[in-house]
C-alpha cells in the first residue's frame, strides 16, 4: 500500500513501500529452486534535509533549521525584472501556496499523532540531499538509442503479445524492442536486453518504443485510467543532451482517444510553467475530447516533513501540478441505454511524499484514484520510466528504473513457488516528523 495517511485535503504517500511490495519474489534462473527477493535501494529516497539555493538566501527566503551553513552566501546572479512567464508563475503560486502549506502541515501532523500512538516509524536522519552522490546506471541512455534504431528494424506492425507465464522457465529469447511484453505471472521476472537485466513486476505489461511506434498498443486494450508525464520542452532540458523532449504539437499527436474507454480518467503531470498548464487545459485536452475536471498538486517533502525547497523559493517550487480530465467519447450502451457512469472528481487535492532523487520518478497514483474509475480498471502510463503491477506502460525509457542495478537482493529462500507476490509491504511506512 502506498497511502500512509488519508484526509479530506489529500494523501501522504510512501513511494518506496509501494515499489517494494511488488518484488517479494523472482524466478529468473531456470530450474533454480531458490526464490530471490529484491527491494529498491533506499538511498534513492534518503532525503533528510531540504536543499536551499543560493538565490533563495540572497533573495530573503528563510532557510530551514540546520541550514545556517548557507547564510551569508552572496548571490552571483544580477538582479533583473521578472519576465512575463515568471510573473504568471508567481501569480499562480500566490493562489495555491497557502492551501499547499496548510494541507501539507495537516497531513504530516496527523501522521505524527498516529506514530506516537503506536510504533515509532520515523526514519533516522539522512544526508543532505544536495550532497548525496548517486551511482549512475550506465544503461540509462542506451534505451532511447535502441528505440531509435528499432524504427528501422521493425517490419510487422501488428506483432503478437509476448506473454511471460508462470510456466515459462526462460525469458532470454524475448525481443523487447517495439514488442508488447506481458508478465502475466504472480511473481516478478527478470529479462535481459543488450546484456542488461531488468526486473518486471507481476501482472505488468510494457511497450518499449518511441512515439513513432505505438501501433502495438492500439487494439490491445481500452483503458479506464491513463496517466502521462510528457518530456516538456524548456531551457534546462535543451541544455542537457541526455534528456529528450517533445514539442506541444508532438504530444498532441498521441492517440489518447483511441486508447480510452468511455469515461476514461486522464491525468497529466505538468511543470510549473504556466504556458504548459494552459496548453493542457485549453488545447491538448480539448483536442482529445477530454474535459478538465480537477487540478491536484504533488508536494515534495523530506523524511522529516520539511519542503524539499522553501515553498516560496524563487528558484524552484516543492510541488508539481496534475491536471485531471474525463474522456467524453461515446458511452457504451446496453439495450439502447448508456451504461457508463462517471464519478465526480474532487478538486484541489494534495499528494505529499518524499520524492525519489532519480529524475522524473513520479509517485504512484493508482491507490488514490480508486473509486474515480470503474472497479478493477485497466490502467496505462504513457512516457513511463518504470513499471507497475497491473498496469500497461509505454515509453522509450519504460525500463529505465527497472534496471537491476537500482535494486538490492535480500535473503534467498528455498522453494520459489511458495513466495509469490503479496500486498504486504517489505518496509515500515515513512512518517515525517515535522512540517
TrEMBL record:
Coiled coil: none annotated. Pfam families: MT-A70. InterPro entries: MT-A70-like (IPR007757). GO terms for cellular component: cytosol; nucleus. Residues 55-94 are annotated as: Disordered. GO terms for molecular function: RNA methyltransferase activity; site-specific DNA-methyltransferase (adenine-specific) activity. Belongs to the MT-A70-like family. This is Methyltransferase-like protein 4. It comes from Scyliorhinus torazame. The lineage of its organism: Eukaryota, Metazoa, Chordata, Craniata, Vertebrata.
